Amino acid sequence: MEKILQVNDLHVSFSTYGGEVKAVRGVNFDLHKGETLAIVGESGCGKSVTSQSIMRLIPEPPGKITKGSILFKNKDLTKLSEPELRKIRGADISMIFQDPMTALNPTLTIGDQIMEGIIQHKKVSKTEAKKQALEMLQLVGIPSPIERLKQYPHEFSGGMRQRIVIAMSLVCQPEILIADEPTTALDVTIQAQILRLFKDIQQKTGVSIILITHDLGVVAQVADRVAVMYAGRIVEAGNRREIFYKGEHPYTKGLLNSVPRLDLDGEELVPIVGSPPDLFSPPVGCAFAARCDYAMEVCERVYPMKTALSEEHYVDCWLQDPRAPKPIKTVISTI
Ligand code: SF4
Ligand code: MG
């Protein structure tokens, strides 16, 4: 499948009074054309920082991409100037956040806001912009769009506002849409509608989607592939079935055991005990070791190498690695 975005060995740090927080520590992934890749993990795992780095939206300083590349259309986004980035943001790569109110201006009608984006990026007349704004509202399922264009954000429900934000993000037909917790603020029924809308739009436009979420229920509904992040790294990635049915990393298993599943009626939910490590001084070995029931001596000392379990399924865990020292508890000193 065609790769539309390639993130290679991305490292992002933030300098603070307490020291340097290493929020993203060597993230690698490809995004394929027309797919939905979910990046999942607990808050603070670096998933939002990763997605904001793609758009170069992390405040620099205190944030800094310290290493790695983000390739889009033969360009390394980490190397572009602010004017070059401005051309890409919105037009080629667009982003949607959790709270639609922060993306909407409360003092302008939604018609004016959608049209402003169209006029700014496409340099078309007001009449043409209005026509396109109406088409967009139809695409995202806003009823009576002609009347709705004249209304202000507060006149819409949360779910409708998120639909409008999605419409605004699509006006320039971006190739990549990054959605950071786009349904977290919405109730479950509306959440399902918005997720269906993403799928619908993807079928109609072919847009590639990166979905950032802490919610495996959301992942199950829309993702083609899943990357599980922990303490600034992707610890397991695979297609949706592989992650849900053959997830091998103890952290992935922990996440799966901590959410209710309809197919396993009556199974007890087990929360993951403990908390993620401090990213001021992240552990040298596996960052999950302190919470892992299977942790071995080697885990704390050496970060596990990537092990391929299938063409698309990768895991960073000594348990799965045939290169692990044998017997597995033996101390190794040469890596
Ligand atoms: Fe657990 Fe070791 Fe695997 Fe880390 S590498 S998840 S500590 S078994
Ligand atoms: Mg976040």
From TrEMBL:
Localization of this protein: Cell membrane
Domain (ABC transporter): residue spans on this chain: 5-256
Domain of life: Bacteria
Xref: InterPro entries: AAA+_ATPase, ABC_Ni/Peptide_Import, ABC_transporter-like_ATP-bd, ABC_transporter-like_CS, Oligopep_ABC_C, P-loop_NTPase
Membrane topology: Peripheral membrane protein
Gene3D superfamilies reported for this sequence: P-loop containing nucleotide triphosphate hydrolases
Keyword Nucleotide-binding set for record: yes
GO molecular function, one term: ATP binding
Keywords linked to the UniProt accession: ATP-binding, Cell membrane, Membrane, Nucleotide-binding, Transport
PANTHER family (alphabetical): DIPEPTIDE TRANSPORT ATP-BINDING PROTEIN DPPD (PTHR43297:SF2), OLIGOPEPTIDE TRANSPORT ATP-BINDING PROTEIN APPD (PTHR43297)
Similarity comment: Belongs to the ABC transporter superfamily.
Protein name, UniProt field: Oligopeptide transport ATP-binding protein OppD
Lineage, opening ranks: Bacteria, Bacillati, Bacillota, Bacilli, Bacillales
